[in-house]
Design brief:
The structure holds 2 protein chains of 2 kinds.
Chain A lengths: L1 H31 L6 H19 L3 H24 L7 H23 L15 E3 L2 E3 L1 H23 L1 H11 L1 H6 L4 H26 L8 H5 L1 H7 L4 H21 L5 H15 L14
Antiparallel strand pairs in A: 1-2
Helix pairs in contact in A: 1-5, 1-6, 1-8, 1-11, 2-3, 2-4, 2-8, 3-8, 5-6, 5-8, 6-8, 10-11, 10-12, 11-12
Chain B lengths: L9 H5 L5 H20 L2 H26 L7 H17 L5 H23 L4 H21 L1 H4 L5 E2 L4 E2 L2 E2 L3 H24 L1 H11 L1 H6 L4 H27 L1 E2 L6 H14 L4 H24 L2 H9 L1 H19 L3 H15 L5
Helix pairs in contact in B: 3-8, 3-11, 3-12, 3-13, 4-5, 4-6, 4-11, 5-11, 8-9, 9-11, 12-13, 12-15, 12-16, 13-14, 13-15, 13-16
The chains are: A mainly alpha, B mainly alpha.
Chain lengths: 290, 348
């Protein structure tokens, strides 16, 4: 029983990271209809930037995030302006391929700036073990789970109650109609990229604090795809829940089956999900069958 | 003045090429390629072999992504399947290379059905993610089934002989790969001008319309998967012959991206484009290395320590720039140039 709890708790932590990354994917997909393959690289880049800020100014977690998030939003906006905006009106395939190209560029640049060696990044979060119902957690792990809960709630409330959020849903639903009622679609797209990079920076910093700051952090982006698919590409809340589910599944399969199944359990899950419910658990049905 | 090249019969429309000029240029090109080893040094031959293998892989991927419009990010997975099948059959089961290489293609084609069948319900991005997942699963299975694949130890591939010639080095390797490449290009060209190729293009352009016109989507999508993976599997087998030692590190994700960059750079859906793109990208690292060498020694150490990153950045820039400014790719540039000169001095 103890073993099961431990597996579930470590799965929750990994899953919270997937959930945060997946929410970024879902946000951009919802507003622009594009899967941003460079999202994992955004996670990595913002984590490294935050690491540099932390080593230079020795900030504790919340002030550090208060600086990191605006910087990452500017990065998101810049990338959208330079790479994605000129592609407006091109087929989705081209735009997605641009994000794939952007991904390898960002990855290469980041590794060339910070080098291939891993770093220890603590963000001055205390390291004393906290027990919750007998299950030990590090504070950083609780920060990660807490961040997912807060961001999922905030994302849901944002899309439900704010003017900008409603506009974003309108754009997601029908771009032309949104334009006709006076919504600036390009502003919404830019907004989606900014918010998604903010989410990326939170995920990146907390992931690096919990594990390590390594140059293959970008890979977490790809590993979060199962969460996005499970939740349905266009559901923010679904992405958060999907992340948790995938994290726990990975952890359990590694614990009880082994064989490095952690690495691919999520991918096996998405192949099954796509065969049974191609629109995910919470996504809107739009796949046509011929 | 020539006003254009007009087809006057159905025969001309489906012919491989009805232009004598094209035929003679193709013959000239092949003659040049056959004569090349007589003058070229070994390093150039190695590069040429790598480029031709890339051509085989790009032509295979182009059939799936360019012609049928099914996006695949799982190219590295199929390459791995082909390379491992070839290596295992040759080294563990003692098959001759002339049997093991086609077997590599067949195994890759059969395995592609595992991705192909779920893909029947998926489109676009979902398919891209499924194929991506497939590539990871393949690498994982290879790593964790050491009894079959030697797992993390990798496989040494040696002793491939055709007519008592060691086709793993030097000129024999070059001619062997050249022959396979020409065969694959011919296969692709012939498929593309037949009913099958036209059905694939119809599916790409509009699958519902294609269905209405009587094209069996299940059959043709699966066929596209199988033929494409067959060719990619053979490319994988050729890779195992050339590099002589394979492990899963060879088949990283960057390979899939490289392959996509090739067909985008060349021009999606065009076989000539895939060939051009593959050759261009295969020689790009050499160009980059040359450029780095040109700017002095300190940068050269930068190049050697970050060779993968620099290559990745170069692929990324190529993908982004071409999609942004020249979505038709190199073949589009060529068509524009040809049109410009045949219509000169009129604008169009």
């Amino acid at each position: 029983m103890e073993f099961l709890f431990l597996l579930v708790s470590s799965g929750l932590v990994a899953g919270a990271a997937y959930g945060l990354i997946a929410m970024g994917f879902a946000l951009v997909y919802k507003a622009t209809g594009v899967v941003n393959f460079a999202h994992g690289e955004l996670v990595m880049l913002t984590a490294y930037i935050s690491f540099t800020l932390w080593t230079t100014f020795d900030l504790s977690f919340f002030p550090l995030m208060a600086i990191t998030i605006p910087i990452s939003m500017v990065i998101g906006l810049t990338l959208e302006r330079i790479f994605i905006r000129p592609m407006l009106g091109e087929p989705v395939f081209s735009i997605v391929m641009v994000t794939v190209g952007l991904a390898v560029i960002l990855r290469g640049v980041t590794i060339m700036i910070w080098g291939p060696d891993p770093f220890n990044f603590t963000a001055n979060i205390p390291t004393g073990v906290i027990r919750i119902g007998g299950v030990p957690f590090y504070p950083a792990q609780l920060y990660l789970i807490g961040a997912l809960a807060v961001m999922a709630l905030a994302g849901w409330a944002f899309l439900r109650f704010t003017r900008m959020g409603v506009a974003m849903r309108a754009v997601a639903d029908n771009e032309t109609a949104a334009l006709l009622v006076g919504i600036s679609v390009s502003r919404i797209h830019a907004m989606a990229w900014m918010l998604s990079s903010a989410l990326a920076s939170i995920a990146g910093v907390l992931f690096a604090v919990n594990y390590r700051l390594v140059p293959d952090l970008w890979f977490q982006g790809l590993k979060s795809f199962p969460a996005v698919i499970l939740g349905g590409m266009d559901s923010i809340l679904g992405a958060a829940i999907g992340g948790i589910v995938i994290g726990v599944i990975e952890s359990l399969s590694q614990g009880y089956v082994g064989q490095g199944l952690r690495e691919i359990a999520g991918f096996i899950v998405i192949i099954i999900v796509l065969m049974v419910r191609p629109y995910g658990l919470f996504g809107s049905r739009e796949i046509e069958r011929v | 003045m020539r006003t254009g090249h007009f087809k006057e019969s159905y025969g001309q429309l489906v012919a491989l090429s009805d232009s004598r000029v094209t035929w003679s240029w193709a013959g000239f090109g092949i003659a040049l390629l056959i004569a090349l080893p007589l003058v070229a040094h070994n390093y150039l031959l190695t590069l040429m072999v790598a480029a031709m293998i890339a051509v085989v892989g790009a032509v295979g991927l182009n059939m799936l992504t360019g012609t049928t419009g099914l996006i695949s990010l799982g190219q590295s997975g199929f390459l791995a399947v082909g390379a491992y099948t070839n290596a295992m059959l040759m080294m563990d089961y003692g098959w001759p290379v002339l049997l093991s290489l086609p077997a590599a293609g067949v195994v890759a084609a059969l395995i592609s059905l595992l991705v192909g069948v779920p893909s029947l319900r998926l489109k676009g991005l979902y398919l891209a993610i499924t194929t991506l997942a497939f590539a990871f699963i393949v690498n994982h299975l290879i790593l964790h089934n050491a009894w079959l694949t030697h797992g993390p130890n990798g496989i040494f591939v040696s002793g491939a002989k055709v007519l008592d010639l060691d086709i793993q080095r030097g000129r024999p390797l070059y001619y062997f790969v050249l022959a396979v490449t020409v065969l694959v290009i011919l296969l692709a060209l012939n498929l593309q001008r037949s009913r099958i190729g036209r059905a694939w293009m119809a599916i790409r352009d509009h699958d519902i319309a294609a269905r209405v016109m009587g094209i069996d989507l299940v059959r043709y999508k699966l066929l596209a998967f199988m033929v494409s993976s067959f060719i990619v599997g053979i490319a994988g087998g050729l890779i195992s012959l050339q590099i002589r030692f394979i492990n899963i590190d060879v088949f990283a994700l960057i390979l899939s991206i490289e392959a996509l960059a090739m067909i985008i750079l060349g021009g999606l859906g065009s076989i000539a484009g895939a060939v051009l793109g593959a050759i261009f990208l295969s020689f790009l690292p050499e160009v980059i290395r040359y450029v780095f060498a040109l700017f002095g020694d300190p940068n050269s150490t930068l190049y050697t320590s970050y060779v993968y990153e620099i290559r990745g950045i170069a692929y990324g820039i190529v993908i982004v720039l071409f999609l942004r400014f020249k979505p038709d790719g190199l073949i589009g540039l060529w068509r524009d140039a040809r049109k410009y000169w045949s219509n000169w001095p009129l604008a169009y």
